[in-house]
């Protein structure tokens, strides 16, 4: 896995059967309260983040309400023009570029650590490009049986090393995996 | 979840993205050596097991070579007649019955503990019927991106409680979940 000057951490909450959303839904409606607290805490570690258009759509109001230049949010979309009125340069931007180009641009602008926030197609694009340095996966104790899979579409088989395990609650695990050849991304203190 | 007189433990090895087989394959070709040792060990805990026709197809020779009445193996298939020459009553049987009927029959014959061995459609049928008492999931540190999901098809959302976690190796976790209202199925000693 190539080392990027921007470290990329894929953050996701998954069901036991590897789903990130219920059938017909966007957003992890099955995430526990413990995961929601952890997720908000985890974002403080990052100076930039990338998400897909559908993920943005489900949290648009929160994103716009909280957008600031401490964490530059990039939304991947094929149709940048549509989102012109939401754009806030340096805080909330839209891009139709490939993952490598987006990270290159973030690096040139001095960003160091990027949270990859999904959905399944965005996760796939970054894994496929070999650009994921770490996975912070919350594993919820539920079987969903359908819905969006963590990796939406074919990708080369990609191996990771287990770096840390933590209980977010009695039944919810947080797992930290490191890409081969990548710099570990230690979890922030509980 | 209803209590069965036969306790059902779903045993599976999954990728980080919830797959049980590589695209176009049957059988967990990505399972680590540590998981393969664990899997063989785990089966000693059971006096019966259930698997689907495709899963049976991938391990037919081993199953036939090792079949004995200590563990009654039941293969679910729509076409029982096709498998007539492989059948060994009390050791290897074929059934087109529903999960509840299969378990009822096993209970009447004095069987107590059933390993559910997949694949994804068989797992789904048992989860759907509310007949899974525990999950013993091996989580391999790999993203596969496509292939058979753990639960193949729609099923009602089903919650479990995390009972135990264990390292099978530095990077491979074994997780034991208990169904709500079900009797726990403790892992055998390491």
Largest interface: A-B, 41 and 41 residues
> Unreliable segments of chain A (pLDDT under 50, ≥5 consecutive)?
none
Q: What would you report as the Rg of chain A, rounded to the nearest angstrom? A: 16 Å
What distance separates the N and C termini of chain A? 29 Å
Characterize the main sheet of chain A: 8 strands, mixed
Number of strands of chain A: 9
Mean pLDDT of chain A: 95
Shape of chain A: globular
- Element string of chain A (H = helix, E = strand): EHEHEEHEHEEEE
Proportion of residues in helical segments of chain A: 10-25%
Q: Please state the oligomeric state of the protein chains shown.
A: homodimer
| Beta-strand percentage range of chain A | 25-35%
Number of helical segments with 4 or more residues of chain A: 4
Instruction: Briefly note the structural class of the backbone of chain A.
Output: alpha/beta
């Amino acid at each position: 896995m190539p080392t990027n000057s921007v470290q990329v951490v894929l953050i996701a909450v998954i069901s036991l059967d590897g789903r990130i959303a219920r059938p017909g839904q966007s957003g992890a409606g099955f995430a526990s309260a413990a995961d929601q607290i952890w997720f908000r805490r985890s974002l403080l570690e990052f100076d930039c983040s990338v998400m897909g258009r559908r993920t943005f759509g489900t949290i648009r109001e929160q994103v716009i309400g909280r957008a600031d230049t401490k964490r530059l949010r990039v939304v991947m979309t094929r149709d940048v023009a549509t989102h012109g009125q939401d754009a806030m340069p340096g805080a909330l931007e839209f891009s139709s570029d490939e993952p490598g180009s987006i990270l290159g641009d973030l690096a040139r602008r001095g960003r160091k650590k990027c949270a990859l926030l999904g959905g399944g197609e965005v996760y796939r694009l970054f894994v496929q490009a070999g650009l994921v340095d770490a996975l912070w996966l919350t594993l919820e104790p539920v079987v969903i049986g359908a819905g969006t899979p963590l990796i939406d579409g074919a990708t080369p088989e990609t191996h990771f090393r287990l770096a840390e395990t933590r209980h977010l609650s009695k039944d919810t695990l947080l797992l930290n995996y490191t890409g081969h050849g990548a710099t570990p991304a230690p979890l922030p203190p509980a």
